[in-house]
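Quick start: read one record
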Amino acid sequence: MSDRVATADIGRKICLALEVLNYSRVRCARELGVHKSMVARWVTGKAHPTEHNLTRLTELVHRARLDFVLSFWELDAAVFVRRLNIALPTDETRAADRPTIAVLALDNLSSDPGQDYFSDGVAENIITELSRSRSLVVIARNSSLIYRGRAVDVRQIERELGVRYVLEGSVRRVDNRIRISAQLIDAQMGSYIWAER
């Protein structure tokens, strides 16, 4: 995709996308799993995103604007932002139609601390599966897993990641048996909505 994009327009288009989506550079960096200084370098044109990051940014825009298509990147910056404005519903519609969720690192309840990688793998699989749903906005793995091992109030996570829902849980592995517990929390209310084993 990057060979079809005028590199001189990439920074401007990222800046326009952030402006239209009302995303701060910090929020964009969290969503993409990069440092905020990297987003600043893209916006100012001091650096260009890799094809991987450009694809992820495109997916981020597409989640917010279902009518957005990859070919929009080929348009000049002025046409690009006009097409973006037409394609996206209002902030109120988007918030109502696209619930946001963060999947936290699952606690490893096994006696073997070496099973942490397994717990992280389960959490990553949940993130991947939820991301397939176009009706959800799922926070990137690198952003949500930073809370691993920390006792954090879900309302703090709601403020920091801008999410409505949080999924937390635990994994216990003994020999060839596995028990996974998960709880879905309304981060604004701080109350459980659903739990399952």
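The first helix runs from residue 7 to 21.
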